[in-house]
Amino acid sequence: MKKIALFALLLTIGTVVAHAQESRQDFSISASGLIEPYVTSTTDVKVSAKRGIGALFSYRFMLTPRGAVEANYQYVQNNIHYVAPSYNYVVNTQLQEGSVAYVYNRTYHRFNPFVEAGGAALIFYNVRNLQTTSLDVKSQTVIAFLYGGGLAYELSPSFDIRAEYRAFVSKVPNFGDPALTTNQYYNIYNPTIGIAYHF
Question: What is the enclosing helix (H) or strand (E) of 140?
Fold first, then answer.
């Protein structure tokens, strides 16, 4: 009888621990937009970019009830347009993001507002096709500061809808071409909306 009671107690504790571990993680998939601002510089290079669309994949692990670490991967397709008095370049790009951030969140019934900050590597891959007007450009990786905030709405204990404003502060890429150097930093806007699964 004691063995059965001990087994039942251990099974109950194991179930509670497993449930607690399951609720400490989530994975989300979001549609994302990329809005790069217009930039002018002292080198007479002007930069603008088309709006990009892509997908963001995020994994969060809760360290405390209010704090989490998050790892992100994002893919976006867009192109960047450089203008100067003597030339007009278009660089078709695919942007990939790899980032890690600390997330602080609060809970108000089904609403969970949060803010985050961290670091990111932004890889600008140039696509050599008819849209890219210069063959001198190369792919480039820039280090960026990531910050943002958003709101999650709980649909069930396992799922929520997550909307977020994210942004990157980074150096404007020149794709390895000194003629495209701006010596400027800019703020890239990155709104997202998606769904998260808690496990």
Answer: strand 140-154
